[in-house]
Design brief:
Structural class: mainly alpha
Strand content: under 5%
Number of strands: 0
Largest sheet: none
Order of helices and strands: HH
Distance between the termini: 68 Å
Length: 63
Amino acid sequence: MAKTNPFSFLQQVRSEATKVTWPSRRETLITTGLVLAMVLVFSLFFLFADTMIRWSLGLILAR
């Protein structure tokens, strides 16, 4: 593996970082809101599924 001196490495990192397209503040807030909404939806789904499984097992094991 070829060795690169630290100065050259930092120049390469800086040039690559300028190529990154960063999201706007609006895009970041929208994405964050969607993630939080999906977390809420899935947590409610798994709460419901867990409750139904617990209820079903309670009926089966109560016999």
